Amino acid sequence: MFKTIRVEERITAANDKEAEALRQEWKKQEILSINLMSSPGSGKTTLLKRTVQELHGRCRIGVLEADIDSDVDAKAIDALGARTIQLHTDGMCHVDADMMRRGVSAMGVEGLDIVFLENVGNLICPAEFDTGCGKSVMILSVPEGDDKPLKYPLMFQTSDVVLLSKIDALGYFDFSVEKCAARIRLLNPHCLILPLSAKTGEGFSAWIEWLEKAYREVLHD
Amino acid sequence: MFKTIRVEERITAANDKEAEALRQEWKKQEILSINLMSSPGSGKTTLLKRTVQELHGRCRIGVLEADIDSDVDAKAIDALGARTIQLHTDGMCHVDADMMRRGVSAMGVEGLDIVFLENVGNLICPAEFDTGCGKSVMILSVPEGDDKPLKYPLMFQTSDVVLLSKIDALGYFDFSVEKCAARIRLLNPHCLILPLSAKTGEGFSAWIEWLEKAYREVLHD
Fold first, then answer.
1. ipTM over 0.85
2. Beta bridge partners of residue B83, listed in sequence order
3. In this structure, what are the phi and psi dihedrals at residue B205, rounded to the nearest 5 degrees?
4. Is A14 touching B (CB cutoff 8 A)?
5. Minimal-distance CA residue of chain B relative to A127
6. What digits encode the pLDDT tens for the residues A127-163?
7. Whether A169 and B172 lie within 8 Å, measured CB to CB
8. Is B33 within 8 Å of B26 (Cβ atoms)?
9. Do the Cβ atoms of B5 and A87 come within 8 Å?
10. Which of A60, A134, B82, B188 satisfies CB 3.0 to 4.6 Å to B61 for a cystine?
């Protein structure tokens, strides 16, 4: 039998206060802010593009595109008419509250209803740093495997919504939505789990409904 | 047009010296050490399992399984008879040279020919910390998309080999092996690019051949 050893190091996160201040500002401005997290290649940008298109004419949307050093996603989102800014993290694996504040201030959020932060593609570090967003949403795509809640528990624990994406590929991969959902609920009983496909649109209306409901809650809070 | 701002922070990596010392020790012990990196769900464990099986009887293999806090992969590898140790990083997004040294010392490497470090699932942080391994290999799986070299350049720049995995799913995803390979070569002209499937075995013999060649180089260096 193999041994297990702990090789931890202390992660300092002094940004909780800054995040809380930012969250209060979003509230006052009546803006729904969403921290969107996932691993690379899970389809964050495709999901955001379809979301922007479906909400067109109903909500004014801003997108902060965090990338370690490329602009490809910001270009795609910008082309759809959402207000967009690119945050270059220069190698950093996550966005913290201070980076978020600088992004928000450079983009300008006046007149917006919903602001998405497309966080850096990573299932670990983004879950450890509070960005100050009102809601946290993560994407887990079918090709990544239904065991991921076992391996990246913090990300699942800190999310209000888990989108199980690329369900159009369910026939091709050995992925059980039921098993995966049960694993997520063990970690986070209050989490909303929405299976969907940004490619075919299956399940997408439940996501749009959740966004509209969450936005109404910001208005009436 | 959208704006771009830089939100970088300084990442301190004081472990280069320790990594180099570790690399010299591997050399003296005539062990090929491989840092295996990828995003979550790209199939690191499945690839390692098949690799251990194919090398059975030809090489003695050790595996350091780094996980933020689960044991699922170590159990799977241990069952195949490789010497295995689980490294719990307790939330840390990468393995550095010090963690590697502690893992190696706890597992014991006497009598081994090849030691794999299955690094934490993450395309960013593991590329920034030298683990002291002799070779770096990364996996990019077809469902993640052929644009990933544009988004995570450092990982591709620091790898000796890029395994384009899950090529059995090529018919299902919009992924061009040629485009992806061209993007990788722009970043890293000397990198070996091997398309393969750990599920069907397609392309796997080239990977096994590379491992055997790299091991012979360690012996004759």
1. no
2. B62
3. -65, -30
4. no
5. B91
6. 888 999 999 999 999 999 999 999 899 999 999 999 9
7. yes
8. yes
9. yes
10. B82
Collapsing DSSP states into helix, strand and coil, what is residue A207?
Answer: helix
Sign of the CA dihedral B73, A178, A208, A135? negative
What residue type is assigned to position B23 of the chain?
R
Residues whose CB is less than 8 angstroms from the CB of residue B195 and which lie 6 or more positions away in sequence, other chains included: B163, B164, B167, B177, B203
Q: In chain A, which residues have their Cβ closer than 8 Å to the Cβ of B148?
A: 40-41
**CA-to-CA distance for A147 and B38, rounded, in angstroms?**
16
Contact B86, A2 (CB under 8 A): yes
Nearest residue on chain B to A42, alpha-carbon basis: B144
Q: What is the per-residue burial (b if ≥16 Cβ within 10 Å, else e) of B35-52?
A: bbbbbbbbbbbbbbbbbb
Model pLDDT for residues A44-98, shown as the tens digit of each residue: 999 999 999 999 999 999 999 998 777 778 888 888 989 999 988 877 888 989 8
- The helix (run of H) or strand (run of E) holding residue B132 is none
